[in-house]
Each structure stands twice: as structure tokens, then as C-alpha cells.
Amino acid sequence: MTAVVEATDLEKTYGETVALSGASLSVTAGEVFGLIGPNGAGKTTLVRALTGTTEPDSGTARVLGEAPAAIDRGRLGVLPQDFSPPDRLSARELLAYYAGLYDDPRDPDAVLADVGLADARDTWYEDLSGGQQRRVCVGSTLVNDPDVLFLDEPTTGIDPAGRRTVWRLIEDLAAGGTTVLLTTHDMAEAERLADRVGLLADGSLVACDTPAALVRKHGGSSRLTIETTAESEAFEDLEYPVERPGRGRHGTPDGALVVRDIAPAEIGAVVDYLEDRNLEYTGLSWAEPDLEDVYLELADRTELERTSPDTSERDDLASASETA
């Protein structure tokens, strides 16, 4: 299938900083492509190179078969990460202004309804909440009914209900044939919306596939989280691998233990183990691996390889990650 958006070996440096280092990707018509990666990985630079606002040092970028700077801007919708329209215009006036830049725009009221802001049409931009402002910004990229849509962290600051409105809108656009490339730090967003996900690290794509395929390959095993104050030694006789990961990953509470590689039908055996040894616990939760596991695995591996000074140590770390 012909690529609608294509980057080949893009390189870009800013002084001593390497923003892109051989970044390559290909997005087909009607596809939603999710770009994830740590801060500073080069996501925004890659989007700028693909939209013609940054000139790469080397490599090629093509959108709709042309160089990004040569594209009819009416065929593109671009939402930068930082976008600050005039404060003293209403939501409708802002969209009417952007609609006026195109020959055959959509009705601003219809766009406001799409992003869930029909009731706020007459509110000044500065008086909208942060999440509402971001939805107006999303709307500004849709007034020209673009063929290709670039969204750099589109739902940042939007509340859960508003985020789902934007998600449904993106799904509807893709179903209608719009090609979408979005960057996000929200793994649930990427997993729900993206047909394929690419992880950008140190300026290049280190993995790219469907969310399900990435989870199968890099997500690891299922986990049963036990909220307990019992010491790890109390679980030495349990037949499943046990770890105490600490707070943060998947919102694991302080002191909780994680039992790895366990099927739902086997949870009863763990409960029996707890009760037979009078080990107190306040909660149990089971989960399959997801895209967050993939992100943490690949991002951690890339960070270890980048910061480890010894080549043999990097190889050992990579081997351990592959077999974990």
C-alpha cells in the first residue's frame, strides 16, 4: 500500500544536541499512527520535519507524495504541542478565523460540536478551561477537512470525558479515510487509537508494530498485585515469581508485591497460600501486560544501553531484557 506519510533516515542536530538520528517511518492512507517516546526523544522534531516547519539535515520526508513544504496546506491539519491563539476571541470566532484561511472550509459550529464545545461557542478563549482550550485547538486543525492530520500530544490537559470525545472524533476521522499521526505520552490513548505504534528513542524508531504485537513481543508476563505488609521472604515457597517493584509502575501501592506469570485460574492458589500462612492483605488485582509495559521495557533498555559505559555490560543488559 502506498505511503501517505513517509520519513527515511531523517537526521537533525541542534548544536551538540542530536534530535533525529536516522528516523524512518511509513504511514498508509486512513491509518492512525501513534508516536511514543521519552521527553527529548525527537517526537516533535520529527513531526516538524514531516510538516515542513523544520528542515532536516539529511534524509527525506514525503507527505501525499510531495516534499512537506510543497504540500497544499489545505490538505493538512497540524496541531503543534504549543499553540496559543488570541485570548480575546470566542471559541467560534477563533474557528471562523481559521476557516477563513481556506477556500472550502467546514462550518465552525459543526466543528465545535465535534469537539464537544457547542455550548461554549461564545466564551472567550481566555475564559475557557485548559482542557477546553486544547479542544478548540484540535478543532482549528479540522476546519479545512484535512486529508492528513498531525496531532502533537492532542489531549494534554483535557479531562477524561473530553479526552474520550476527542478519541471518538479521531476514530471517526480515520474511519472516513483521514490519515492521522499523533504523538502521546498516554499509553491508553495510543493503545486505543493507533493501528500501529512506533517508539522513538534517541532520535530513531526502536520498535514499530500494532499495539497487540508489541505487547506480545515486549510486554512481559501477567501480574497479580498483592497489597500486603508481609515481607518478601514470606513468599519464598510460592511457586510463582514474586517481586516488590515499588510505587509508580502501574500505580503500584507502597509495599505491594507483584506475582508474575500467573493465569486468572491460578489466583485461588495464591489466596490459599496467603490464608494458610495468616498473611494479611488489603487487596488483590490481576492484569495482563499492556502498552505501558512495552514502553517501560523498551525505554528502560534504551536508557541502559545509552548510559552504560561498558560495551559488554550493555550487551549483558540487552540480553537480560530479552529473556526477562
TrEMBL record:
Biased composition (Basic and acidic residues): 300-317
SUPFAM superfamilies tied to this protein: P-loop containing nucleoside triphosphate hydrolases (SSF52540)
Protein keywords: ATP-binding, Nucleotide-binding, Transport
SMART domains hit by this protein: AAA
Gene3D superfamilies given in the database record: P-loop containing nucleotide triphosphate hydrolases
PROSITE patterns: ABC_TRANSPORTER_1, ABC_TRANSPORTER_2
Record region (Disordered): 300-324
MF-aspect GO terms: ATP binding; ATP hydrolysis activity
All residue ranges annotated as the ABC transporter domain in the record: 5-227
Pfam families: ABC_tran
Stored PANTHER family: ABC TRANSPORTER ATP-BINDING PROTEIN, ABC TRANSPORTER ATP-BINDING PROTEIN NATA
Family the UniProt entry places it in: Belongs to the ABC transporter superfamily.
Protein name: ATP-binding cassette domain-containing protein
Organism: Natronorubrum halalkaliphilum
